[in-house]
Amino acid sequence: MTATPTPTAIDVNRRPARLSGAAAVLLAMTALAAVAVLGELDRSGIVWVTLFVEGVGLTLLALGRGLRTKNQGVAGHAVTATGLVVVAVSFGLAVTEPSDVGVRVWLLVGTVAAFLVAVAVVPVVDRWSRRLLKVGASILFVSVLLGGLVSLGPLSTLLVGAVAALLVWDVGEHAIGLGEQLGRTAPTTRVELTHLAASLFVGAVAVAVGLLVSGLGTPTLSFPSFVVLVLAMVLFGIALRN
Amino acid sequence: MSEHETNRWRGVGGTALLAGAVGLLSARPSLLLVGVVGVVFAVYPRVFSPPTPDLKLDRRVDNPTPNFGEAVRVTVSLTNVGSKPLFDLRVVDGVPASLVVTDGSPRCGTALRPGETQQFSYSVEATHGTHAFEPTIVVARDPSGAYEVETSVVEETELVCRALPADARLRRHTIDCIGKIATNRGGQGIEFHSSRDYRHGDPLSQFDWKRYARTREETTIEYQVEQSARLVLLVDARRVAYRAPPNRPHGVAYSVAAAEDLLEGLLDAHNDVGLAALGCDDCWLEPGRGPQHRVRARRHLITHETFSAMPHDPDDEPALDEQVDTLLGRLGASTQVILLTPMCDPEITRAARTFEVYGHHVTVISPDVTSDETLGQRLAAMDRQNCIAALRAVGIPVVEWRPSTPLATALSASATEVEP
């Protein structure tokens, strides 16, 4: 009997789930774009350019990782390096181009946060995915707060930005968890879409609640009483949690 | 069924407090309202209770008795038979450790409405032996992912890959090698062995009458004695034997598969075959024969704890010397030992030598689970070669088995090697 060649077992690819991972990065970008719209920061168009350049950079990072996984190490490393350079360019744009210092700081923090999220879910490095994602999402949330501080604008976009930042953590962590438990070769579209839909729904509810509360507050209440009202809501939420 | 919190929403209340604090300090109502978003997301995971998955599993294999190396398509259908929808299900099918998935994934993530069914399929490559599927592990989460419930669904499926199209090859080898000493004696039997002078008391049936008629010499014909061997298949199932090359079954799975093949072949050849294992659980089956014994031995190999797919806790494992001592007490005189081990450490060679010293003839069959991709792997392979050489140097035959070939091939190839 002749020897049978050893079969090639399929690799269990533990990278975060593709769909949710992409959604997390897109949501991070959305959080930034939402704040940009909010403060009419887009007057010079530089915010959009920066976001676009970073988007290209992150796509290159994802492509590079894909190539490295397929054992095309040299090409993969080259594409990853290019991606990193492009992302660095977007950081540079964020620091140098906007005229306002507040906008500069906000944009830099935001782009760095989006980069961290991408590093976590692509993933560019295979370790610390959750930690990187957590840091990225937190910074993103802070950048939304910063955006709110530097320029006042329509509340709805600020709310959308904050929701997007929280969803980045939710969706990104879901992607990482699925990657750990099932791997990329497993069919996971259905569970990912269900989770995404549920999270988006809750996000929409959160935006609606925010708008509703603001509708209650602004015309009739003074700022202190409004503060008390919101504080009461926050405490209510904490009481529910415990 | 085990249930725990994932804590993935921990800290989300903090975002509400942070936004509220910043809003207060800067007197910006809009930032205060961002805090509301945090509150909503802090409440979200509290709305749900842990899911109670109630599932039915149906596993189909397109060929339950494949040939060696053949790809078998496994299709799994999972149905939600409960009354509530399951929003987040992660399913990992219990592929036997001795099988390799070659196409698709035995894992699936899905969401199921009541009564809905999800199907997924994958291919495994058949290797020798009887492979029972393990329970399928299901992890269910509520929509927010705050609670996680882990449970398992049992659907008994077996793949049987009878490796040896001709057991004769194995049997002949077995008699050649294992029964060698016993058959070198002359006596009653069928095959001619020698003739010698007649001694008083020799059976008349062996008296050479033709010669007596010719030459008046009184001689007795001796025939080759065909004694069956008493032997024990000893499987090395210690933790260290669970070593596996990347993405391949581990050494114990191969050893057990080889033991199954040998068991059939040796019982067919009218030997007394027993089973024993080195590992954490006490595994011992007295040598015997007959159909009942055959069934019992087969069951033993498939179901006994010691041969389980997962390695045991190393703390449960007694020292190898103790296990060898226990076995020596159980092995009857002149019982031979067929030791099945991937030879991952030099200790096992010492055990083999101990058996040999106590008068039990040892044959080692060693599935090769080494690979040569990294320096460490090559070093391990070299270690194994050294162990094999050490055993051969003291006269213990070692059959090296590359599991990509049938065991019978390895046995017949080594027949010349063992007996020059």
Task: Write a concise keyword list for the protein shown above.
heterodimer; A: 242 residues; mainly alpha; disordered N terminus; B: 420 residues; alpha+beta; Immunoglobulin-like; 4 domains; six-stranded mixed β-sheet; five-stranded antiparallel β-sheet; 19 strands; 32% helix
List strands and helices in order, with pairings.
The complex is a heterodimer of chains A (242) and B (420).
Chain A: H1 18-38, H2 46-69, H3 73-96, H4 101-121, H5 129-150, H6 155-181, H7 189-217, H8 223-241
Helix pairs in contact in A: 1-2, 1-4, 1-5, 1-6, 2-3, 2-4, 3-4, 4-5, 5-6, 6-7
Chain B: E1 2-5, H1 12-26, H2 29-43, E2 55-61, E3 71-80, E4 86-94, E5 100-104, E6 107-112, E7 117-125, E8 129-132, E9 134-141, E10 147-153, E11 158-161, H3 167-177, H4 180-183, E12 186-197, H5 209-215, E13 219-224, E14 230-236, H6 251-268, E15 272-278, E16 284-288, H7 291-303, H8 320-330, E17 336-340, H9 347-357, E18 362-367, H10 375-393, E19 398-401, H11 407-418
Parallel strand pairs in B: 14-15, 14-17, 17-18, 18-19
Antiparallel strand pairs in B: 1-10, 2-3, 3-7, 4-6, 4-9, 5-7, 8-11, 9-10, 12-13, 15-16
Helix pairs in contact in B: 1-2, 3-6, 3-11, 6-7, 8-9
Characterise this structure.
The complex is a heterodimer of chains A (242) and B (420). Chain A is mainly α and 242 residues long. Chain A contains eight helices and no strands. In chain A, helix 3 (73-96) packs antiparallel against helix 4 (101-121). The radius of gyration of chain A is 21 Å and the shape is flat. Mean pLDDT of chain A is 82; it is low at 1-7. Helices cover 32% and strands 30% of the residues of chain B. By secondary structure, chain B is an alpha+beta fold. Chain B has helices at residues 12-26, 29-43, 167-177, 180-183, 209-215, 251-268, 291-303, 320-330, 347-357, 375-393, 407-418, and strands at residues 2-5, 55-61, 71-80, 86-94, 100-104, 107-112, 117-125, 129-132, 134-141, 147-153, 158-161, 186-197, 219-224, 230-236, 272-278, 284-288, 336-340, 362-367, 398-401. In chain B, helix 10 (375-393) links the parallel strand 18 and strand 19 (398-401). In chain B, the strands form five sheets. In chain B, strands 16-15-14-17-18-19 form a six-stranded mixed sheet, with helices on both faces. Chain B has a five-stranded antiparallel sheet with strand order 1-10-9-4-6, with no helix packed on it. Chain B has a four-stranded antiparallel sheet with strand order 2-3-7-5, with no helix packed on it. At the A-B interface, helix 5, helix 6, helix 7 and helix 8 of A face helix 1, helix 2, strand 4, strand 5 and strand 6 of B. Chain A: Pfam families: DUF7519. Chain A: The chain crosses the membrane at residues 21-39, 45-63, 75-93, 105-125, 132-149, 193-215, 221-240. Chain A: Keywords: Membrane, Transmembrane, Transmembrane helix. Chain B: InterPro entries: DUF58, Ig-like_fold, OmcB-like_DUF11. Chain B: Keywords: Membrane, Transmembrane, Transmembrane helix.
